[in-house]
Amino acid sequence: MTAIVDYRAGNLTSVKLAFAAIGEPVEVTSDPARVRSAERVVFPGVGAARSAMENLLELGLVDVVKEAATDGRLFLGICLGMQILFEHSDEDGGVDTLGVLPGRVRRFPNVPGCKVPEIGWNQVNGGAEYYFVHSYYAELGPWTFGKTEYAGVEFTSMVKKGKLWACQFHPEKSGRVGLELLKGWLAC
Amino acid sequence: MLTKRIIPCLDVRGGRVTKGVKFKNNIDLGDPVEMAVAYSNGGADELVFYDITASAERRPIDIGMVAAVAETIRIPFAVGGGISDVSDMERVILAGAEKVSVNSLAVRNPQIISDGARAFGAQCVVLGMDPVKSDNPKCPSGYEITTRGFREFTGMDAVEWAKRAADLGAGEIVVNSVDADGTRCGFELTITRLIAEAVPVPVVASGGAGNPSHLADAFNVAHADAAIVAGMVHTGEWTIAQIKADLAAANVPVRKVW
């Protein structure tokens, strides 16, 4: 079973529909026991880092998510769900996050002509474009697999660390290339 | 590099996509879901659906259509028309739309923008606006906001309204020029540029696209982040791929893999 973790961080409809489109049954759940017993865990998220951490704490999901990301199960963080895998986010005046991955999340600088948030399709590793919506980015680090450039910054758009994958962009909204990525993750 | 988005706009009336000129003389173009699939497969970066008769008929937006589109395509889409409060926005977003567009409603009740942004995030809230050239002294930019499809003048300055909407939490602003709408003679570059340079959020040029050079102007001259197309692609005269090829030749970054 593939569990999609619901910690009240945004709408999960498109994540659910994307897995349906590739024929993968999923269960959307906030129940720590269900996440613990899932074979594969999807950790999405849209919104702010602080309220995301507060929700995880309140729902008793902090340790369960850390465990799922590190115990060798297939794990996929998406957008905010990738950002809070790092150690610290500068969002909301600074908040310590899950610390599963080394590194820090920062806000895009204000650069003339570059609107923040970044909204739209941007290239990963100079290749195919994926759909991004974000104001904060993860710095490059040892597990950076995909790099993307915006507002004069080169940031981590994708992480691969064994079975732990995470992406800043939204594969569920990235058309055919996004679905290919989800299939690749399931087959990993 | 972040690419410029090409967004086909589908005006829906009675469950069918239609196209009119200056909001009038609507003709039938096809089924919304079938057209969404065709545009998504053809390289459109995003779609926008307006339920154009919902407000006039005082009925909520067609959620069945929103859900059917969401189940079928995997690119972002926005929905507008027939939104009267945050619970309408919520229904549209839970059905799978990425964004909800408000226009006349936000003029009457600007708080809908902040309420929507607080509930779903600014990226979900799009402000649509219909500015028209005006010599109203209350509108120093020279453009006045109209509502209800050009029928009512508000006395609001278009640039001031755009700034206020962005402050309230609108994540994106669609500048739909009433003067240019449906003419296929090019976007209204002046007001698009004034707004693109005045607000910190992405601006979408809308109304008047007739050929790829009009889009190149929206990006290179008016500094828009995205552009809406309708008649020029709905008639089959241009494909999204042709538009993107011409834009790439004009040094506009566009998505090439889909």
Overview of this protein structure:
Chain A is of the alpha/beta class. Chain A has one domain: Rossmann fold (3-Layer(aba) Sandwich), CATH 3.40.50. Helix content of chain A is 27%, strand content 32%. Chain A has 6 helices and 13 strands. In chain A, strand 12 and strand 13 form a beta hairpin. Chain A is globular, with a radius of gyration of 15 Å. Chain B has one domain: Aldolase class I (TIM Barrel), CATH 3.20.20. Chain B contains 10 helices and 12 strands. The longest helix of chain B is centred in the middle third of the chain and has 11 residues. At the A-B interface, helix 1, strand 8, strand 9 and helix 6 of A face loops of B.
Write a brief structural summary.
Chain A is built from 6 helices and 13 strands. With 188 residues, chain A is an alpha/beta fold. A 7-stranded mixed β-sheet of chain A has the order 2-1-3-4-13-12-11, sandwiched between helices.
CATH topology name of chain B, in short, is TIM Barrel
- Range of strand content of chain B: 25-35%
Q: How many separate domains of chain B? A: 1
Q: Going across the major beta sheet of chain A, what is the strand order? A: 2-1-3-4-13-12-11
Strand order of the largest sheet of chain B: 1-4-5-6-7-10-11-12
Whole-number mean pLDDT of chain A = 96
Indicate the CATH class of chain B.
Alpha Beta
SSE topology sketch:
The complex is a heterodimer of chains A (188) and B (258).
Chain A: E1 2-5, H1 13-21, E2 26-29, H2 32-37, E3 40-43, H3 49-58, H4 62-70, E4 74-78, H5 80-83, E5 88-89, E6 95-96, E7 104-107, E8 118-123, E9 129-134, E10 136-138, E11 144-150, E12 153-161, E13 164-167, H6 175-186
Parallel strand pairs in A: 1-2, 1-3, 3-4, 4-13, 5-7
Antiparallel strand pairs in A: 5-6, 7-10, 8-9, 11-12, 12-13
Chain B: E1 5-13, E2 16-21, E3 24-30, H1 32-41, E4 47-51, H2 63-72, E5 77-80, H3 86-94, E6 99-102, H4 104-108, H5 111-120, E7 125-133, E8 143-147, E9 152-157, H6 158-168, E10 172-176, H7 189-198, E11 203-206, H8 212-220, E12 226-229, H9 231-234, H10 240-249
Parallel strand pairs in B: 1-4, 1-12, 4-5, 5-6, 6-7, 7-10, 10-11, 11-12
Antiparallel strand pairs in B: 1-2, 2-3, 7-8, 8-9
Helix pairs in contact in B: 1-2, 3-5, 6-7, 8-10
